[in-house]
Amino acid sequence: MKSYLLKMPCQSVYVIETDCPVFGSRITLKYGQHIVETDTTATPDISILKEGDEYTVTVGSVSKKTSRPIFYLNRFLYENPSYSSDILALHGGAVEHCGKAYVFLAATTTGKTTLTSYLVSQGCGYITDDCVLLERASLMLYPFAKPLHLRAGGVEVLKKYNALPAELECLSEQEGNDRYVYTPQNSVEKPLPLGEIFFIERTESENSVFQMTGAEKIAALMKSPITVYPVTSDYLRFLSRLGREFGKRLKYCDMNFVKEVIENYER
Q1: Residues 239 and 115 in one domain
Q2: Range of the structural domain that residue 46 is part of
Q3: Fewer beta carbons within 10 Å, N or C terminal of the chain?
Q4: What is the pLDDT of residues 105-114, one digit of tens each?
């Protein structure tokens, strides 16, 4: 039996216990530097035990049998978030250029990870490809550099741009759900000031950047958190402040266009 400490930035810490040596290497592919083996004697928050071809995942008093323990663990963490109260957690990717953070917000399967990977291959610093951690008071972005997980389609796109990482590891949960994993070398290690927020849309033929009205920005920001926040007056004031300073609509068919936007961006 081995124990692992999952310590992600601005979130709760979890102790995970498992009797499966293979699971330890697979969970490292998922969370990278944010999970380490530990000799703690603390009661585990999450237990993952192998039984034949399946796993029993136990959280508190609830147990579930599954053949996809990584998927189930990840879903639990997303459905039971515990972010610091001074942080706004947004569903998006982010890269660094010239000391500032550029954020890309969009729904799942819209190409955020592929775009992030491409920009990192072109010299941008890697901040995150999934969870943007924005401190509300200072508008500083905290890095959350988990390994990048590319879908097969993203791998093919990066091949066309000659931007595919040299070493990829496959993390497979079930047929048709493989992810190709790597950790960029140029990961950001300290908080950065926010440069811009782009609400992105991948298109067939259009490359453009649009101004947005205040109302459009607020509506888009309210759809972007990775968790549900109470819609209080303070929360709305913060989104209004964020929208006054940041927010553009970016449509792209060519990732080089996004690269040029960032490299030439002026506020």
Answers
A1: yes
A2: 2-79
A3: C
A4: 987 777 899 9
Q: Please report, for residues 81, 90, 109, 247, 264, the alpha-carbon distance to residue 225 in angstroms, rounded to integers and kept in the order given.
A: 11, 4, 16, 15, 28
Read off the amino acid at residue 244.
R
Burial bucket for residue 160 (CB in 10 Å: 0-12, 13-18, 19+): exposed
Q: Give φ, ψ of 87 to 5 degrees.
A: -115, 140
Q: In what order do the strands lie in the sheet with 148-150?
A: 148-150, 179-182, 169-171
CATH number of domain containing 249: 3.40.50
Same structural domain, 135 and 6: no
Q: CB neighbours (10 Å) of residue 7?
A: 16
Helix (H) or strand (E) holding 258: helix 255-263
From first CA to last CA, the distance across the chain in angstroms is 53
d(CA 164, CA 45): 37
Contact yes or no for 73/46 (Cβ under 8 A) = yes
Element (H, E) at 141: strand 140-142
CA-nearest of 192, 195, 165, 194 to 181 is 165
Residues 230 and 103 in one domain: yes
Count structural domains, the chain. Answer: 2
| Model pLDDT for residues 181-206, shown as the tens digit of each residue | 999 989 999 999 999 999 999 999 99
Task: Return the axis-axis angle of helices 233-245 and 214-222, rounded to nearest 10°.
Answer: 120
Using the predicted structure, report yes or no on whether residue 102 has a pLDDT greater than 80: yes
Question: CA neighbours within 13 Å on the CB side: how many for 84?
Answer: 15
* CA–CA gap between residue 196 and residue 247 (Å, rounded): 7
